[in-house]
Amino acid sequence: MSVADLFPAAQPSATTSADRITIRRPDDWHIHLRDGAMLKAVLPYTAAQFARGIIMPNLVPPVTTVAAARAYRERILAALPDGMDFTPLMTCYLRDDTDPDEIERGFAEKVWIAAKLYPAGATTNSHAGVTDLIGLAPVLERMERIGMPLLIHGEATDPEIDIFDREAAFMEGSLIPLLARHQGLKVTVEHATTAEILDVVRANRTRVAATITPHHLVINRTHIFQGGLRPHLYCLPVAKRERHRLALRAAATSGEACFFLGTDTAPHVRGAKEASCGCAGVFCGPSALQTYVQVFDEEGALDRFEAFASLNGARFHGIAPNAATVTLERRGSRVIEAVAVEDTAVVVFRGDETLPWAVV
Ligand code: DOR
Ligand code: ZN
């Protein structure tokens, strides 16, 4: 499969240099690739848009050991179509019983570059996650010492807490105290969805960053219920009120180094989404870059797109930006409606829409 096969024919139209932008190849700092047939089906779309990506470890069972991360990385590379170039950056799934020595070994051996904190029960395949953040101190102290970033799914897990308040509750009750206890720990607040958490990130910008998804830049919580229930727009953290979406757009397009790209592309087959109890996750891999660039264009910030997409994340993780480039063009391009997986499919975010920007 070639890159051209991944994108349906774009509508031709005249372009001028003002309608084209060339940036260093971007990286995606938050990706769910799953495994097996799903991995094979979705990976080409991410690899077509991004040079590298942080791979989430919430498989069943989760990726908790150096050996499991190494094996998963091999399966990803084996699933990559010939001629495509993509580097998976692996992560370790933290549990209450994670051994600090195992964390350090995987980091020293360059098998994983970060560890992922799922509060137990917060989201998909997180039941084996962390129940006691205080008890995690030995692991976090070790990570602080070796300079290994902690990636946080920042939502409170108490089912009594309103779902739209769970990021705020985690921020107040867990994140701010954690940052105070571990003052040298590098932290990424993943898929930020509230205005308030952006300010916590800014206040700690020397060592705290946030990723922002494409969908949280274009939908608010009302879109999930527009004309009926839209299961393919449901993810966690769930989209919030319009004022939060506007704050996310301002942060992403601000050029501030503490904000960078992380799609949280999270495929679930159609039947798992269109169900009486549908899974959380937006599959935005095939439409991510077109969506981000549209947002930057609408905000008059195309000159800051490269920083968000290709520079800030690499700098935070201490690795060089990519040398190769990608060009985006202002011309209508249709997004594939769904990606086939075995005898079913995964519905794509903004699928079947013609978007104003195309990946060349
Ligand atoms: O919506 C989500 N889906 N949020 C997450 O945190 C996990 C993800 C998934 O794995 O499906
Ligand atoms: Zn995720």
UniProtKB/TrEMBL annotation:
It catalyses: (S)-dihydroorotate + H2O = N-carbamoyl-L-aspartate + H(+). GO terms for biological process: 'de novo' pyrimidine nucleobase biosynthetic process; 'de novo' UMP biosynthetic process. Pathway: Pyrimidine metabolism; UMP biosynthesis via de novo pathway; (S)-dihydroorotate from bicarbonate: step 3/3. Zn(2+) 2 binds at K116, H153, H191. One of its GO terms (cellular component) is cytosol. Residues 28-323 form the Amidohydrolase-related domain. The active site is at D264. Keywords: Hydrolase, Metal-binding, Pyrimidine biosynthesis, Zinc. Binds 2 Zn(2+) ions per subunit. GO terms for molecular function: dihydroorotase activity; zinc ion binding. Its cofactor is Zn(2+). Its EC number is 3.5.2.3. Substrate binds at H32, L33, R34, N58, H153, L236, H268, A280. The keyword Zinc applies. Zn(2+) 1 binds at H30, H32, K116, D264. The modification N6-carboxylysine is found at K116. Catalyzes the reversible cyclization of carbamoyl aspartate to dihydroorotate. Belongs to the metallo-dependent hydrolases superfamily. DHOase family. Class II DHOase subfamily. PANTHER family: DIHYDROOROTASE. Homodimer. NCBIfam families: pyrC_dimer. This is Dihydroorotase. The lineage of its organism: Bacteria, Pseudomonadati, Pseudomonadota, Alphaproteobacteria, Hyphomicrobiales.
